[in-house]
Design brief:
This protein is an alpha/beta fold and about 400 residues long. The chain contains 14 helices and 17 strands. Helix content is about 35%, strand content about 15%. The chain has a 6-stranded parallel beta sheet with strand order 5-6-4-1-7-8. Strands 11-10-9-15-16-17 form a 6-stranded parallel beta sheet, sandwiched between helices. Helix 1 crosses helix 2 and helix 8 packs across helix 9. It starts with 13 loop residues before the first strand and ends with a helix.
């Protein structure tokens, strides 16, 4: 992949850049600006080089319709505050407002186009539809920079097709994410521990399959942990279960044993009569993993499990973590996720937090980004990379 430095003198040139500003909102207030902050090194270099910067980004899933709920206005305001410069927001994506805003740009200025997902063709499965929209995007730039790592696994007009039209390069964020993931897949320092949580086994099947070949220890928590417990023949009550994957999970446990890999699953759990709603307080009990009552639901790993997982993490030289250990949004069920995050923060190992809910969890629990080696901005993209899949948004950069 080319870098920005390979694009030559950018003074006065229009640089079309894809960022990922898909940030969580409470009304119009951004509750975690991590993805906007992650774009700053690239954007600052471009503006300081005198480029005329045209930013493309998305927010949520407006499904090809203009919906004020998904406007990028809060992102434009926050980016302006962080970069200490005016960031204008175009009133549309490729219409007259965007055309006028781009034409009015001076050297070193930034315009943010409205949510690219307002355009029905952005996510189209029909190549010709995406290509036609990409041609409109391309009219706004002399070169294209890809810096939205959270979307590089998507074959979308603003990620893939436009990169085929304009001279392209990876921004600092995408380049850094790829370097980190190569460390995890090609030359991890050992012991290499992978911690997987979250809700569904199905979402992580391919990555488990691939990581069992690479990692030394695989730690399972979160909602997906109960499918592993069920595969051992345990009663799991009303806990989350991916019933169709029980046999697959049994195969993973056998595969790990045959390969001499450690596969750690919960030995105790925090259970409650129902999924927490409202502010609480919530009734909870700690039980052994093989003694979950039939009318109770597992909502977090227990303290013994948390301690064992922390010990495994602290003994590692490389750690990748994706997915919380429980319902971390509710204080009573956050202890397992807190313990894993603390172990990552305390170790001298190279640590990677794999985006999505894991990134949200560590910030919500009060950890600074600097406590970890790297916090990925793309949970889905990082998992697909670790699965060994080809990511269209990276592949197209390497092809030019």
């Amino acid at each position: 992949m080319k870098s920005i430095n390979d694009l030559g003198d950018l003074q006065g040139k229009r640089v079309l850049i894809r960022c990922d500003f898909n940030v969580p909102l409470d009304g119009e207030t951004i509750t975690d600006d991590g993805r906007i902050r992650a774009a700053l090194p690239t954007l600052k270099q471009l503006t300081e080089a005198g480029a005329r910067v045209v930013v493309m980004a998305h927010l949520g899933r407006p499904k090809g319709e203009v919906n004020p709920k998904y406007s990028l206005a809060p992102a434009a305001t926050r980016l302006g505050e962080l970069i200490d410069a005016k960031v204008s927001l175009a009133g549309d994506v490729v219409g007259p407002a965007a055309t006028a805003a781009v034409a009015a740009l001076a050297d070193g200025e930034i315009v943010l186009l409205e949510n690219v997902r307002y355009e029905p063709a952005e996510e189209s499965k029909v190549d010709a539809e995406r290509e036609a929209l990409a041609a409109k995007y391309a009219q706004f730039g002399d070169v294209f920079v890809s810096d939205g790592f959270g979307v590089v696994h998507r074959k979308q007009a603003s990620v893939y097709d436009v990169a085929k039209i304009l001279p392209n390069a990876a921004g600092h964020l995408v380049a850094k994410e790829v370097d980190v993931l190569k460390k995890l897949t090609e030359i991890p320092e050992r012991p290499y521990v992978v911690v997987l949580g979250g809700a569904k086994v199905a979402d992580k099947l391919s990555v488990i399959d691939n990581l069992l070949k690479v990692a030394d220890t695989l730690i399972i928590g979160g909602g997906m942990g109960y499918t592993f417990l069920k595969a051992k023949g345990y009663e799991i009550g009303t806990s989350l279960l991916d019933a169709e994957k029980i046999d697959v999970v049994k195969g993973y446990m056998e595969q790990a044993q045959a390969a001499g890999k450690q596969l750690l699953i919960p030995t105790d759990a925090v259970v409650s009569p129902s999924f927490p709603s409202g502010d609480g307080p919530h009734a909870l009990t700690v039980v052994a993993a093989d003694a979950i009552p039939a009318d109770q639901m597992g909502l977090d790993i227990g303290p013994d499990t948390a301690a064992a997982y922390a010990d495994a993490i602290k003994a590692a030289k490389t750690v990748f973590w994706n997915g919380p250990m429980g319902v971390f949004e509710v204080a009573e069920f956050a202890a397992g996720t807190q313990a894993v995050a603390q172990a990552l923060a305390d170790t001298a190992a190279f640590t990677v937090v794999g985006g999505g809910d894991s990134a949200a969890a560590v910030r919500q629990l009060g950890f600074a980004d600097e406590a970890f080696g790297h916090i990925s901005t793309g949970g889905g993209a990082s998992l697909e990379y670790l699965e060994g899949k080809t990511l269209p948004g990276l592949d197209v950069l390497e092809g030019n």
